[in-house]
Amino acid sequence: MNPKRCAACKYLRRRCPKDCVFSPYFPPNDPQKFACVHRIYGAGNVSKMLQQLPDQTRAEAVESLCFEAKCRVDDPVYGCVGIIHLLKTQIQKTQNELAKTQAEIAVAQTKLSQTHISDFM
């Protein structure tokens, strides 16, 4: 048994075994991280997911689960998709603004070149 229980074991009010699947990813000093993931996915499901993954990919999977769970808590309807949609909208607006600015620059350059040509005639 670990002398310091991980956040998951503290939250679940159980002993933290040496081979606890949660302890490397849910440190005791960040209990909200596990609480959020548990609220959305459940401890059993997260445990099963982690056990099915190779050790080298578990940390990334936990970070992804935490991010997705936080998004789902913040926006229960859309979750991460809401953020993706917002970013796509911002990209589209920025692309439109860039195209407009480039067109204005082209018009200004054309006027400037016409002014220089008329000055020489």
Average predicted local confidence, pLDDT: 91
User: Considering DSSP H and I runs of 4 or more, what fraction of the residues is helical?
Assistant: over 70%
Our count of helices gives: 5
Q: How far from one another are the termini?
A: 92 Å
* Anisotropy-based shape: rod-shaped
Rg, rounded, reads 27 Å
Note poorly predicted spans. none
Main structural class: mainly alpha
Tell me the fraction of residues in β-strands, as a range. Answer: under 5%
Describe the largest sheet: none
Q: Tally the structural domains.
A: 2
* Number of E-type strands: 0
* Strand/helix succession: HHHHH
Protein name: LOB domain-containing protein 23
Pfam family, one: LOB
Organism: Arabidopsis thaliana (Mouse-ear cress)
InterPro entries: LOB (IPR004883)
